[in-house]
């Protein structure tokens, strides 16, 4: 499958590399389309790896991952283009973190809204699915690194069919079907985005990002 990854940072590279390993064609998107990090990633991942602008990547991908920083996500997706994303699944991993006052970050969007919802408003013809935003990049693509994969991940989105497709893709990443929790429509992204202040403080307290939440009932 042709997939696009918007963003060249740690999360984007982790997702893109995993997709290549799984046999997908991947185009990594950046502002310039000639990003040094993307060029280095391509050199390590063979002919199925390529790069382009955000718009070129969005046009290429059958499924698109938004792996950009939350503070620029809406701007990036405007550059990617509504027409290029129309009818497609956009897997949104971004969080509305504000580092302008240093650490720990605050949230740019909170309480009765979420970045996931703002993205869905921006792209009304795109199936936005919020997931993978509550853990570090290595665990996103290899959940077995913590507690043998016995922990949970959340999905938010308006389209049940889109969430089912994303769930199937996440299972190829190593996530067990019984660890995928569908929270409901895109407004439930408020909950997972607002977990991030807790996540940041856990990271500081434990000195490692190698942890994830597990729901026990």
How would you characterize the overall build of this protein?
By secondary structure, the protein is an alpha/beta fold. It has one domain (2-206): Rossmann fold. Helix content is 37%, strand content 20%. The chain is built from ten helices and ten strands. The chain has helices spanning 10-21, 36-43, 54-60, 73-80, 82-85, 115-122, 137-141, 160-172, 189-193, 196-206; strands spanning 2-6, 25-30, 49-53, 63-66, 89-92, 97-98, 106-107, 127-131, 153-157, 180-184. The chain has an eight-stranded mixed sheet, sandwiched between helices. Strands 6-7 form a two-stranded antiparallel ribbon. β1 (2-6), α1 (10-21) and β2 form a beta-alpha-beta unit. α3 (54-60) crosses α4 (73-80) and α4 (73-80) runs parallel beside α6. The longest helix has 13 residues, at 160-172. It is globular and about 45 Å long. The termini are far apart. 42% of the residues are buried.
What are the salient characteristics of this protein?
217 residues; alpha/beta; Rossmann fold; eight-stranded mixed β-sheet; two-stranded antiparallel ribbon
